[in-house]
Amino acid sequence: MERNLKELISKMTLEEKAGMCSGLDFWHLKNVERLGIPSVMVSDGPHGLRKQDDKGDHLGINDSIKAVCFPPACLSACSFDRELMTELGETIGREAQATDVSVVLGPAVNIKRSPLCGRNFEYYSEDPYLAGETAAAFINGVQSQHVGTSIKHFAANNQEYNRMSNSSEADERTLREIYFPAFETAVKKSRPYTVMCSYNRVNGVYASENPWLLTDVLRGEWGFEGYVMSDWGAVNERVPALKAGLELEMPTSGGAGDQEIIKAVKDGTLDEAVLDRAVERILRISFKWLDNRKEQPFTMEEDHEFARHTAEQSMVLLKNENVLPLKTDEKVAFIGGFAKKPRFQGGGSSHINSFRVSSALDAVSRMEEISGNVTYAEGFAADKDVYDETLAAEAVEAAKNADKAVIFAGLPDSFESEGYDRAHMGLPQCQNRLIAEILKVQPNTIVVLHNGSPVEMPWLADVKGLLEAYLGGQAVGEAEVSLLYGKVNPSGKLAETIPLKLSDNPSYLNFGEGEKTVYHEGVFVGYRYYDTKEMPVAFPFGYGLSYTTFAYSNLKLDKDELTEKDTLTVSVDVTNTGNVPGKEIVQLYVRDNSGACRRPDKELKGYEKVALEPGETKTVTMTLDHRSFAWYNTDMKDWYSASGTYDILIGASSRDIRLTSAVQMKSSVKPPLKLHLNTTLGELLSDERTMEYGKYLADKMTSFFGGSSDEASEAITDEMNAAMATSMPIRNVFSFGACSKEEVLEGLNKLIEAQK
Q1: In the predicted model, is pLDDT for residue 247 greater than 70?
Q2: Which residue stretches, if any, does this entry annotate as coiled coil (predicted)?
Q3: Which residues of 155-246 form beta strands (DSSP E)?
Q4: How far apart are CA 153 and CA 238, in angstroms?
């Protein structure tokens, strides 16, 4: 339906317009009945709807409707599967239509800077490319059903401690390369209806009132056309936030924010046109949903099956020393409270009131060929860290009498949640202790982990199997049993590095401060740090095993040289060399050998998931553009790829590179020259535009310092002269008397004029 929104807004009173910029209550926007503007509802929903019937509380204390809990982002991102994520979005979009929800509050794409962040279970990855591609696919799926999304939390929301006021202190290159790209990719590829700003400050300015974030970057550079809403309670000052580009304050402010807007318009400190623009942006999105309303059944049973399928395609097999898959006739002991009461989602605002939860024991009980051969011992409770001698003894005995033991371990709800950060990276000590005891009597031990973020594993070398189930959604048990018994071949890979210990993390000494958190590690986050430093890790980014094997061959690039205006097509053949069908995730990394700036050893720039029958070969093709090679040059205020050689790396993980080729970049763009008297001779010599002048000055200095005796030659070597010249400022040429100041300034000014 065509509407003239400007005409509609012209009929609204100032009070009505101000009212549209804040919530009616916890989950609804305000209506204007006399003008036919109805109230619409938004709801949490990155991995399932959390629609509350009555009074809201944001953190889930009041009951929400029965719904389907799909695997949270910490697991679904491990699928590396754009099609699956689109289908997940479509499913949640249909559920939103069935329950009259206009905007789903998600996905959450903040980077996993530290394993301690309490909300990591809700975030996709430590890698901005993977997070962005995953988010874009999910958003496209949801919005194909004419339901909006609210990508969050913009920006640099990487800890829960003091999240309402803490300032994330990061340089622009770090923000542009690590913390912005997931949002940028999603905005450009999937055009989310809304963006949710974060609570925190960014370099001292609240995200909610940061015009650089909300207007200059989000709208001006990326072309965002929807409206920006606040996280619940994230608005610091209402009028500055509106001016900065935050249209909707959530939840209701009880009229306080509205009155501030009204007062500012009346006293002339807020242009009413800014308010009109905000209202138009909000109404455009609300009517987009209203005009596409359709009756939709809430197909919870079908959606439960899709939740199972998503979990099966995402869980990651980390270790398998010939103990998996389990055989139906083996005697297997299931041990641990999580086998009966799995932890399948995180705590806080995204907590789903699941209509059904299937544990591993539930799944086994429905499988006649297996159920008679599986015994269960609790061993430890799923919700606390208490070593019970009786329960432990029963578990050890059960393991001893079985052919194999499967220990269902993980983090209790109290260990990680929205609202606070983890205190450490360890599992409950009762679990580590029992695993150690079981390993004494049962060498064929497998551990299944239920956790929203990495854990330290002191027993890793001694277990023969390890399945990372993360938080698997409500069908977690069915998915685990399907994978353990080989009914489904594991195909997930890690969307984050699992370090050996917490102190290995690059943010270890700079995480969790209260007033300011300085991102000293810069762009070296996750595998960018671990791989560049060549540091041992428990499991690298992109790693995951299968019950079959894959071979890579025939890597081809469609050109040997390119400019920043070109794209590069990369193809590689992948063959299933095993005996069972499987899926492989082919990863493409780029390494910059130009030496133009300090960069990570490699960066993910492409991936594809491919299904292969035994013996089958398929060709995987990926396309790289300028951004695939570029870094953010703060002097240019733009993305820049320097001339030089770039390696194209094809791998099964960031540490398992199977094939390598190279391409030459011939950049036609040059960073601006920063020439002044403290520019070094080395800087002059490294740039073709100033190289000749650099050589001239270097020769002057060499002549001036040249040795005239054997003693001088021993004291001042050619290497020393070269090193000193490289790091010597231009001003030293005349301060040492090798040249006159006038001559140096004349040459410098000619170079500066030539760049204009």
Answers
A1: yes
A2: none
A3: 167-169, 194-197, 201-202, 205-206, 227-230
A4: 18
